[in-house]
Amino acid sequence: MSNAQNTTVAVIGLGSMGLGMAQTLATAGFKTLGFDLSEQRKQMAKDSNVTPLDSIAQAFEASDFLVFSLPTAKDVAGVVNDHISILEDRSGKKVIIVDTSTSEPDVTRELAAKLEELGHGFLDAPVSGGPSGAATGKLTMMIGGAEEDVAASRPVIEAMSAKALHVGPSGAGNVAKLVNNLLAAAHMVTTGEGLKLALAAGIEPEAALRVINAASGRSMISEVHFPTWIVSDRFDSGFSMGLMRKDVRLAKALADQKGADLPLAETVARLWAGSTELKDTDDFTRMGAYLPSK
After folding, report:
1. How many CB atoms sit inside 10 A of residue 58's CB?
2. What sign results for the dihedral spanned by CA atoms 9, 14, 15, 21?
3. Which region holds residue 219: left if phi is over 0, alpha if psi is between -120 and 50, else beta?
């Protein structure tokens, strides 16, 4: 605990994931700072023993580690590039950025190389587990970056996660996350269609779901998401349609860039982009109940 108390971690982005991670880090004993554009989110952080900051610059000036939880790769690059002069001034003290955003491998590699030249570290460490996992320190993290930076960040990573997998060099965590979310998007569609078929053939979806989850057709989507958020009509998992559409789009772009022939992924991308009745602000679990007849 004493090591944690002597370590300052700043969380940039106190949304549904970032706030939970900040709360978890504070509970673990780290001196935890937090920044968000929303004053309400900063107040929520303050209520959880996280010190709210007035600017991102303060986080870069005061922290040993920075944890990013931002919407896009453009946001991640913008935050780093806008504050790179602070890191230049702190070249005698290594700062490591742990980017939990679902970002883009090429952007990550560029930022990591830039920070390495200054004597700092950058890990791409996207997460799975949703807001509940963030709030309880039970996330799964898939990490790309230098071994020494992963080792140095291990106390922070372990405070936020139940499973932390170092996948490979810079960008590897981003790739693994895009693959994971592409599969989750596909499972959402295929499970929904399977239950639609069951209903058309006279079996109640709940009964069919019990069979699927006891047999080889199961997935985390069928075991957790359908019973918890779809069959129950809650649709409040905390992950939006817009974010999943972005991740599917990025996965397809990566496949196109690498020349990978993925016919099913093409269909999945088309279905998610074409579900125009669902708004980006809707919960992504609504896709499991969105079953167009054509």
Report:
1. 16
2. positive
3. beta
| Tokens representing residue 284 in the block | 């992504």
Distances from the Cα of 97 to the Cα of 34, 112, 152, angstroms:
14, 9, 11
Beta strand spans in the chain (E): 8-12, 31-35, 51-52, 65-68, 96-99, 121-124, 127-128, 139-144, 161-168
Residue 254 near residue 105 (C-beta atoms within 8 A): yes
**For residue range 151-162, what is the model confidence (pLDDT) as tens digits?**
999 999 999 999
- Phi and psi for 89 in degrees, rounded to 5? -70, -25
Give the pLDDT score at 200: 95
Cα pseudo-dihedral 88, 90, 91, 95, rounded to 10: -110
Confidence band, pLDDT 50/70/90 cuts, at residue 150:
very high
CB contact at 8 A, 33 and 53: yes
Residue 292: pLDDT band with limits 50, 70, 90: low
